[in-house]
Each structure stands twice: as C-alpha cells, then as structure tokens.
Amino acid sequence: MKSAVITFPGSNCDRDAVVALQKFNSKVQKIWHQETKLDDDLDLIVVPGGFSYGDYLRSGAMASISPVMQEVKRLAGKGVRVLGICNGFQILTESGLLPGVLMRNAKMKFICRQVHLRVENIDSDFTNKYKRRQVIKIPIAHMDGNYFAESDVIKRLEDQSLIAMRYVDADGNLTDNSNPNGSILNIAGVFNDTKNVLGMMPHPERAIDPDTGSKDGIGLFQSLLW
Amino acid sequence: MKVRITIGLKKSVLDTQGKAIEASLVKNLGYPQISNVRQGKFVEFEIAENDEKIIKQIVDDVSDKLLVNKIIEDYSYEILK
Question: pLDDT confidence of A225, banded at 50, 70, 90?
C-alpha cells in the first residue's frame, strides 16, 4: 500500500494522517502543494484537514487550484482513491472532484466535538469494514461544514447511494438535534460517482486510539488498507 | 483600468451573517426601518486592458475558476475609471 498526504500552507492534520496511515502499514509520501507530479502507482491520496490559505476567499478555494491538485484530479480520473478530510473535503468540492459545497455552519460557530455518524453505504473501498448502517463516533472540528447541493444533485446522491455517512444520534436516528452544522439531509460525507473519491467533515485520523476518545476511525483505514 | 467584483450569496441561500447583522442593527442599534440585510465581499484589481469586452471575459473567467462558487454565490462587477 502506497499513500500520499498533501500539505498546503495552513494544513494542520497532515501529520495525523501520516501517522494513521503508517499505523496501518502504508508507506506514506509527504507531498508539498507545489508538486507537479505524483506517482502513478499510488493507492491512496489523502487531502488532509486544516486551514489551507487561511480559509481566505472560501474554505478550500485557493488550494483547489494549486499545482498538486491538477495531479490529484488526473489520478482520481484513473481510479486512484482520494480521501478528503474536513478542509480536504472542502478542497475536493471546490475542485469539482465532489459535488456540492460546504457553507458556514448554520449557527455561525466553530464546532469541535465528538459526533455520531451512520455509515450509509458500506459498498466502497473506504467503508467495507463497517457493518451496514453502523453508528460510529468520530470528532468534527470545523467552521464551514454545512453541506449543500442543488436538489437534482441531492437526488442523484440518494438514488446512487453516494451519501457515505450522515450525522445521527447515539441510537442511529436522523434528527435535527444530531445535525451539528445544518447540512442538508444531515450529510457528513459523500462519494463521487465512481466511489473512488470520498470527502468527509469528521476526522477518522483522530479516532484511531482510545486515548483520544474513540477508535471508530480504524474501520475506514482498515477498509482502505486491506 | 480598475475592476471591482462584488460577490454575495444567492437570494435563495440563507445568509446567516446577514441575519446576525440585521438583528444587531434593528435590535441593538435601534433601526427598525432596516430589513433584508445581505452581506458579501468584493475583490478589486487593476488590469492592463482597455477593451471592456475583454475585461468582461476575464472577469467572468476568474469568477468562474476561483472567485465565485456558483452553487451558492452570484456576482456583479464594475469598471472603475
């Protein structure tokens, strides 16, 4: 297994992602955002969390047009798996690799806490080690996590089971109270059409050690790393 | 020439910052006449072009590629001479 973790100016979860991947025995390349060539034999690219470019203009907007993203797009088009976490999810939507947009949280506050998620589709390279509709606990830490897409896009996401995970209560129920940021349909993560790209606001790389509150992110890395 | 692009959330998108500003203006500062507050941002730059058609094309291009997320935002621009 060979992975790459991209670092933009302002990324701050890149090291956590590297540590998580190494823990599950992946070789990891650390890639600076000015890089113009990525290896064709990568199995996984992680676009990590943080505040690329200080969230100027819109979260993820400027990172989405950086040189390395042209390579991420090229490899994603060839089927390489791409995982965008938090700011990484924002970068992937801004780059057009994933549909929709992440707006300011509905209540205008930065939210940093553990949330419950329901895994909506386990038929993917990212989620196959989870059980169907499994409820997991993973932390979020963001200001702009309010997922929105136009109604025709939402319909397509639903029809093709491209909603990866949704915010739920501890019993797995979709409720308004369990939706931390106002996301449409409680969406926390989505796949692209071919399910080789996943964007999610919660941080699985922060949920691999019980000492930090949860180890429910392990399933995602085990799914990815066989 | 100088160009100013003004970017805001589409009318159909809830502008939570605008709502918060409105509440402050109406309730805290006491201006009940004010309503429908919307906020946004502007990007201003100089451009070494005089042809307004070319300027429009460049403005549309950069808005499309970076400055504006058309899912939730719209924009207008003016040429400041």
Answer: confident
Q: How many domains does chain B have?
A: 1
Residue closest to A50 by CA, chosen among A141, A181, A145? A141
| pLDDT given for residue A97 in this prediction | 98
In a 13 Å sphere around the CA of B35, the CA atoms on its Cβ side amount to 2
d(CA A110, CA A104): 9
Q: Are strands A81-85 and A197-200 parallel, antiparallel or unpaired?
A: parallel
Say which residue the tokens 């969230």 belong to: A55
Task: Say how many domains are in chain A.
Answer: 1
CATH at residue B36: 3.30.1280.10
Q: Is the pLDDT of residue A226 over 80?
A: no
Catalytic residue of the set A33, A116, A142, A203: A203
Q: Taking CB atoms and an 8 Å cutoff, what residues of chain B touch A57?
A: 66-67
Q: Which residues of A touch B14 (CB under 8 A)?
A: 106
User: Where in the sequence is the domain holding A42, given as residue range(s)?
Assistant: 2-224
* Residue tagged active-site, from A13, A86, A94, A120: A86
Q: Look up tokens 């129920």; give the residue.
A: A173
pLDDT tier at B54, thresholds 50, 70, 90: very high
**Is there a catalytic annotation at residue A86?**
yes
Positive or negative, the Cα torsion across B51, B57, B59, B62?
negative
Amino acid at A93: T
Q: Which domain holds residue B46?
A: 2-80
Among residues A102, A96, A40, A43, which one has the least CA distance to residue A71? Answer: A40
ipTM value for the complex: 0.88
Quick check: A101 and B71 CB within 8 A? yes
CATH code of A145's domain: 3.40.50.880
